[in-house]
Description:
Elements: E1 5-7, E2 10-12, E3 47-52, E4 58-62, E5 66-71, E6 79-85, E7 101-103, E8 106-111, E9 116-121, E10 129-135, E11 142-147, E12 153-158, E13 169-172
Antiparallel strand pairs: 1-2, 3-4, 4-5, 5-6, 7-8, 8-9, 9-10, 11-12, 12-13
Amino acid sequence: MPMWCRRGGYPALNCYTPSRYPRRGCQPESCSRLSIGVNSSLVHRYPFEPRVMSDGSVLLNAYGCGFYRVTQIDSDAPRLEHVYTIEVPSSADLGGCGIPVVAGDYWMMTVGAAFMLVTLDISDPSQPREVSRLPTEDGFAPHWLAKDPGSNRLIVGAENEIGGGDRMLMVIFD
Length: 174
């Protein structure tokens, strides 16, 4: 079976995902340590939200707060590597990394189960690094972000199953 599948003429990342290939020889159910030294068997779970970077590679996050980079995407053998994991308290379980916003060299990410927003510097997509954390108000579990295209304002929506109720937050990105 090819590592890259096509449906309707378009590449489908779900045929080549971190959850199926987290590391050579490592099955998701038994993997307790990923190659970058993060103790977790859940960081690869539920990959989504791919974004094309300026170098042509693709970064995507997983709900478990692992970050992956896809390179050689136009070849018959694309490469997928785990490049970063957002550390979350053990009480956060999966972390709940949700819908990101990319603005220039920054990837802003909601981390619902840990009640915070995290910003990564992605100027080098092969080595993202955390540059800030912003805790949200008590009980507000952020899930998605949207950036106002004409300003530095972000709107933050809640993951209501975890907490947040019927409100939204506005954050200024400097």
